[in-house]
């Protein structure tokens, strides 16, 4: 159950919320039960944190109640963003306007999720990752540290496009350390983009990308290696 608080205009709090004294709260923020919000965090206008799990009648996702949502010290949940119960947002991370972070997803410290992007269930995002506007990180994907994901990138995790039974295992994508994915690229279920690799804009990735390779096209093919001066390490 939610109750009104006079700490900020329109603020609603659930039972057992842990809210540091110096959290910066906008108007009409909703913080659901047991959510933990760390020191110096910002929750902008209309942000919803710790939203209870809601699934469709035909969803195969677990119905078990997720743990509490956690917002790390200095993190920002921007206007209209939704962070579902069980998600963990790291210190100084940024969740953009109208972004959506689902249950059991993790966004690492100093990472940024752009406006309107979705981090789906059981996704792990490392540290210092930059996900731009309008991206979709499919459930069970792994994004390692220092990855860059340009606007409009779509990852997928279901090779059958929904034609499977409850025993079917979804396969997220794996984006290895410091790789880059160009705007509008599409990555098929289970593919791995290697460390420091570069997927060109508009590519459709149907198989694994070697480390430090540039791929482009439909389907994506290796064009050349990434020059040493472009590597982070």
What does this entry look like structurally?
The chain is an all-beta fold and 233 residues long. It folds into 2 domains: 107 residues, Hexapeptide repeat proteins (UDP N-Acetylglucosamine Acyltransferase, domain 1, 3 Solenoid), CATH 2.160.10.10; 83 residues, UDP N-Acetylglucosamine Acyltransferase, domain 1 (3 Solenoid), CATH 2.160.10.10. The chain has no helices and 31 strands. It has an 11-stranded mixed beta sheet, with no helix packed on it. A 9-stranded parallel beta sheet has the order 3-6-9-12-15-18-21-24-27, with no helix packed on it. Strand 30 and strand 31 form a beta hairpin. It is globular and about 60 Å long. The mean pLDDT is 96.
Summarize the structure.
With 233 residues, the protein is an all-beta fold.
